[in-house]
Structure formats: C-alpha cells, structure tokens
C-alpha cells in the first residue's frame, strides 16, 4: 500500500494557451484540485513554493484554505525554501493552518534550489553569518523552526502584560500538537538525508538529486532512502519514518492523454548543473498505456522503497484534466502494483 498524492507547482501565465492565467487562478484552482483529489480517494495535496516566480509563493494561506475545504486528505508542501523563512513567524502560520486543517499538515522544508533571482533571500532580509553558506543558514532556520514547534516555553513574560499569561515562560501561539512530527526534509544528497533522519524529519526525495555515484537515478535515490532509514534507526526515534518520492506519470487512457503525452515520457535520466560545479541527475518521466506503465514503474527501485508517491501535475491544463490524471493512476495503475 502507498499513499498517493499530487504535487503542483501552481504555474500561471497570461497566455491564452493556459487555463491558469493569474495568481488568483493558480490559488483557487489549487483548492479545487485538492477537493477533487480527496473525492477521488487520493491521499495528499502538496504544493511547491517558489519566490519571485509566477507560481505558488505563499503557502500558508493556501494550506489553510485547503484545510477548511477538505476533511481527510493530507495537505503539504514540497518544499518550502528555508533560506527565505523567519522560523518564528513560520511556526505561528504553520500552527494556525494545521489547526484549521485538523492536524493534517505535512510540511516539506529544505535548503531550496536555485531561484528566479540572484540570492533572493537577501531581499527577504536574510544573509548567512560570515564563514557560512546559504545552505547553512537554511539548516539553522530549520533547526529553530523544529525547536519552537515542540511547544515549550522560552520567552520571559512581561510582568505587566496587556492580557493575563499562563504561568512560566511563554511559547509561540497558536501551537498545534503533533505538527513537529509531521515535518519533512527535501534532501538532494545522501548526507542531508541522514542529517534529516537524526533530527526526526521525514524524507522527501524528488526527481532531482546530486549525482553522487553515476548510477541510474532511481538506484541512487533508493540508496539514499536506505541510508536515511539506517540513520533514523541509529538515532533511536520511537516513531516510524516516512519517505516520499515525486514522479511525472501519465497513463494514456483517452484521446486527450495521447494528444498531450502520447509521444511518451522522458525515457532516460538527464544530467545537468543546477549550480556551478554541482552535477545533478534528473529522473525520467513516464507516459504510456497502463499495461506498459505498470511494467515500467515496477522497475523503479525508489518508488518501491517509498511509502508515499507524489504525482507532479501540469496544473495549467486545468482542474478537470488534472483530476483525470490522478484518477487514471488510482484506477488503472495503482491496483496492479499493489499500491491500492
């Protein structure tokens, strides 16, 4: 059995070729797709966060709205770039959104990827201390965020407050019990996956990672997952870790599918440089008739290792068609692979 959700980047463009032509469209259609996915029996609605881009950039209003409109589906991010975040304010926003959703948030956070502008986090008022990198800063922000989510008091109360205080040191409010145990880390390397395990974060592994061995992407990713689980066990956590992978998967079941994706998927991995001197490997896409798709997916070792699969969706094709993509996987592919 696997949890199966969708991952949307929330792209929008004023082009007449797009069904998502404004930021308002992207946000409202994201809510509608989450509602539709829940009705279809999907397990998760996840959203990617990019700043300075015509995409979804402010996750918590969206997560809260999805939480208010749904009742069962997990609601998450994959991922929030912690270089841009004030961890204190983020903890308040996350607590509020999680309470609205009834404890269904699954927040993916990370060091982030190259953005639309150079050192965009500087415009948000952040800079790494001397001798540290922006990745170090992101991990520090993440550690502060995790710490305050525990809900322990740390702030000295005013002896003459405007409103009565509970006794002792004060914590951030609103606090949502259990949210600390539903934080995930998006890891691009084996080392950061192991670091996340030590801190008790779940693992999100996408269709990109640093090329650390030259092996096929799905094998490198499966090895990363196994190293993560070993580190989790060594850390002595009592709860079970979760692992998600994301894939672009399209089952060709009607003429629309064949028109959009009938030329097949990206059948092999790709190598590129996401940063200077950082060689990365990008996993393949899948697009085929269901019987072919089932055979191909059965050979993906990383999907086999993960308990959660996030289907990246082409959101600019509209809510109805993206719901169809999700339904096709749930109906024609997942049962044959033992995911349902």
From TrEMBL:
Start and end residues of each Luciferase-like domain: 9-257
Enzyme superclass (EC): oxidoreductase
EC id: 1.-.-.-
Entry annotated with the keyword Zinc: no
Keywords associated with the record: Oxidoreductase
One Pfam entry name: Bac_luciferase
Gene Ontology terms for molecular function: oxidoreductase activity
Protein name (database record): LLM class flavin-dependent oxidoreductase
Organism: Mesorhizobium shangrilense
């Amino acid at each position: 059995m696997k949890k199966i959700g969708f991952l949307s980047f929330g792209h929008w463009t004023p082009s007449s070729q797009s069904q998502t032509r404004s930021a308002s469209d992207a946000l409202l259609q994201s809510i509608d797709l989450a509602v539709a996915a829940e009705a279809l029996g999907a397990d998760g609605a996840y959203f990617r966060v990019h700043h300075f881009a015509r995409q979804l950039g402010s996750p918590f209003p969206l997560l809260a709205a999805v939480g208010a409109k749904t009742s069962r589906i997990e609601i998450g991010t994959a991922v929030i770039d912690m270089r841009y975040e004030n961890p204190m304010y983020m903890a308040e926003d996350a607590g509020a959104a999680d309470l609205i959703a009834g404890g269904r948030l699954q927040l993916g956070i990370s060091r982030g990827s190259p953005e639309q502008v150079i050192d965009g986090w500087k415009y948000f008022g952040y800079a790494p201390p001397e001798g540290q990198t922006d990745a170090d800063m992101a991990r520090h922000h993440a550690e502060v965020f995790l710490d305050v989510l525990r809900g322990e008091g740390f702030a000295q109360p005013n002896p003459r407050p405007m409103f009565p205080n509970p006794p002792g040191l004060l914590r951030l409010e609103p606090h949502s019990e259990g949210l600390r145990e539903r934080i995930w880390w998006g890891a691009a390397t084996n080392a950061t996956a192991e670091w996340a395990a030590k801190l008790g974060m779940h693992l999100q592994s996408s269709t990109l990672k640093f090329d650390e061995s030259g092996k096929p992407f799905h094998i490198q990713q499966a090895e990363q997952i196994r190293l993560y689980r070993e580190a989790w066990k060594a850390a002595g956590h009592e709860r079970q870790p979760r692992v998600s992978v994301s894939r672009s998967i399209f089952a060709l079941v009607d003429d629309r599918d064949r028109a959009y994706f009938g030329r097949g998927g990206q059948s092999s991995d790709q190598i590129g440089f996401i940063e200077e001197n950082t060689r990365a490997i990008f996993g393949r896409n899948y697009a085929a008739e269901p019987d072919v798709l089932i055979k191909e997916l059965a050979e993906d070792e990383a999907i086999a290792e993960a308990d959660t699969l996030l289907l990246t969706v082409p959101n600019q094709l509209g809510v109805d068609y993206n719901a169809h993509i999700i339904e096709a996987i749930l109906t024609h592919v997942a049962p044959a692979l033992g995911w349902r």
